[in-house]
Structure formats: structure tokens, C-alpha cells
Amino acid sequence: MTTSTRGSSSQRNTALPAVLVLEDGRTFRGRAYGAVGETFGEAVFSTGMTGYQETLTDPSYDRQIVVATAPQIGNTGWNDEDDESSRIWVSGYVVRDPARVPSNWRAKRSLDDELVAQGVVGISGIDTRALTRHLRERGSMRAGIFSGEVVAPEAELVERVLAQPQMKGASLYEEVATKEAYVVPAVGEKRFTVAAIDLGIKGMTPHRMAERGIEVHVLPATATAEDVYAVGPDGVFFSNGPGDPATADGPVALMSAVLERRTPLFGICFGNQILGRALGFGTYKLKYGHRGINQPVQDRTTGKVEVTAHNHGFAVDAPLDKVSETKFGRAEVSHVCLNDDVVEGLQLLDQPAFSVQYHPEAAAGPHDAAYLFDRFVSLMEGQRA
To answer: Is pLDDT above 70 for 360?
Structure first.
């Protein structure tokens, strides 16, 4: 997807008409929300009832126009503590009924004020239920939001949307990752050192590790094996991130180097797809993906069913019914989505490495999967012993 054209931060007029245009020609007319202007991205929907601030600042949503399925958005305003990164990454935001006044003791400003400040173009007052059903039936697709002076005849707007590249084949992880390494210190006594490869990492992820006595060295997506082992890691972590994992040859090569050294390894989301590729499995684009904080997943190693937080439009193509032989030993699918049997986790049986497709840091979301950070700690303890 091309970089979105962000709206003017000095413009905001909720009385201005706005239009959402999908690549198949379906249009939805509403009112401007946030900045005024135009933006392009892949239209996707998120089923979370809460946590819009964390969603909007999740780097995995880069180049995506997010549709909120919850009918009213903005009630809790915007605070200075819940951002998952340094900025809003969504290219556009679609809501049905924006709150007129935020009501939360932590709020510093309204959601639409923040959208304006960061130049994020949105639209409100449309039938988001009809839009979500359309995306479920037709699949996620390219879209554009237009408001103010850029609104033009629909045929022209559709052409502008169709001129945007597809999400399939998009390499985005480097544009959202940190350019400089930084350290998140352990909380309390330091027990381990972890090298975390930033492919679009959320702020809560190293925090969850730090809570367990881990000093986290967050490294750029372009980090080499030499960079990783220069910090003396007890374990290596590969983060979530946006785009098509089929483009991530560099991270796949780095993960292969880590696996060759048998260093304890944990990956989430994009990191799960990278592990899949390193093991020789393929990846593919889901019709409309999993996005929200209410996705049921079964941990096949325990039989337990968890309610989990997701944000992924791609998945690993690995067999569910058998153990696979790979160049790094035996591997199996450890977690599966109960809605559609999508692979939600992988683990190696002959060395300390595993991954999940969802977000155990759960910001926002349920905490059913927090034990996965403890599982990573156990792998590092076992390796040290």
C-alpha cells in the first residue's frame, strides 16, 4: 500500500460530508471525523469493544483503514499512558457513532482531537454493520476515505483507490520498526537478557517481559546475528508487525541463524509467520483476517481454550494433523483458532523455540495468554540449567 495522504491537522468540521470508497465500487457516505482530506489503505474490521487507543497506535495496523464494529467509539477519550507506540499508525478510521463528549478521569483530550492532531482522516455516521458484513463476504480490500475539497464523482474516487497497490506483497515492517536500538530494563532483579527484534513491536510487550526480570534489548528490524549476540542474550524474541511475511527474507534468515545456535526463541504474530517460513512452511493471506480481543484459541498442548487478542491478515500454512520434519527438528502446530482452524501457534519439539499468531501482551485485551511469557522464561531457565 502507498503511504496515506494525511489530512490537515488544522481542519476539522464534523458537518463536512465524507465518503468511504471500496475497490469493488461500494460506497458509504457519512461525515468527516478527525482530519479532513484523503487517505488510502486496506479496509479491515476490528471486533474489540474496548481498546481503540491501543488499536490505533499498534504498528501492525500500518497502511490499514480500520472499521470499528462497536457502534459507539470515543467515550473514554485519549490519554497519555495507553499508546502502544509513538504515533497512530492506522491510515484511516471508520466509526458509526462518535462520542460527543469523552467521559473518563484519565482522558486528556477527545479521540477526534487526537486524530486531527496526527492528521488521521476518518469518517463517521455510516452503517458499520453493513460495511463489516460486506468485508466478511467479499474480503478485506483497498479503500479510500475522502472529505472536504478532495471529494469527487464516485467513478473518479474508485479509480484512485484502484491505483493503490495491494497489501499482498507489501513489505512494511522496516518502516514501522525502531531505527536505533534501546533497552527496557528489568523490573526488580534482573534474571535474563533478551534480544527483541522490532518488526512493529508494541510497547506493552517488552514491559511484560521486564515484569518477569528480563532486560530487553529492542533491536531494529535490520539487525544481524552479530548484533543479536553482541548483547549476550539468554533468549531472542521476534515481534508482531505489518505487511506480507513473504517479503521478510531478512528476518527469516536471522531467525534461522538463531535456530541454528539453539537459543531459546519466542515469536508473536509476524514473528509466528517468520518462524513458519524458517521451518519451511508457506504463508497466505486470509480473506478478512482476525482483528479484535475476543478470538477463541485452543492451546493444543494443554487443551485449554483462551480468549485472545488478534491483529493479523496473513497466516502460516502448516499441517494441523501431524508432526512435521524440518531442518531444525520436529515441529507441530501448538495453537489453533476455533473459529476457522487457522494456525495460531508453532513449537519445535527438539529445541527451545515456539511462537503464537496472536498477542499475549493483550493491550488491549484479555489476559488468558499471559502465561506464554512464563513459558519463554521456562525455556531460558532450562537452557541455562
So the answer is: yes
- Say which amino acid occupies 350: D
Start-to-end CA distance of the chain, whole Å, equals 47
Alpha-helical segments (H) within 27-172:
52-56, 111-117, 128-138, 154-162
Please return the burial class of 304, using the count of CB atoms within 10 Å of its CB with bins 0-12, 13-18 and 19+.
Answer: exposed
Q: Which residues contact 151 (CB under 8 A, 6 or more apart)?
A: 17, 18, 19, 157
Residue-wise pLDDT tens digits, 142-197: 999 999 999 999 999 999 999 999 999 999 999 999 999 999 999 999 999 999 99
Residues 154-176, buried b or exposed e (16+ Cβ, 10 A)? Answer: eeebbeebeebeebeebebbbbb
Distance CA 234, CA 161 (A): 47
Rounded to the nearest angstrom, the gap between the alpha carbon of residue 173 and the centroid of all alpha carbons in its chain is 11
Element (H, E) at 175: helix 173-176
Residue 208 pLDDT greater than 60, yes or no:
yes
Task: Give me the phi and psi of 150, to 5 degrees please.
Answer: -85, -10
pLDDT of 15 reads 76
> Closest by alpha carbon to 68, among 364, 383, 368?
364
CB atoms within 10 A of CB 48: 20
Catalytic positions: 269, 359, 361
What percentage of the chain's residues is helix, strand, coil (to nearest 5)?
25, 35, 45
pLDDT digits (tens, 9 = 90+) for 256-305: 999 999 999 999 999 999 999 999 999 999 999 999 999 999 999 999 99
CA–CA separation, 58 and 88 (whole Å): 7
Cis peptide bond prior to 364, omega within 30° of 0: yes
Write out the DSSP string of 307-334.
Answer: EEEEEEEEEEE--SSSPEEETTEEEEEE
Helix (H, G, I), strand (E, B) or coil at 75: coil
At 95-146, the pLDDT tens digits run 999 999 999 999 999 999 999 999 999 999 999 999 999 999 999 999 999 9
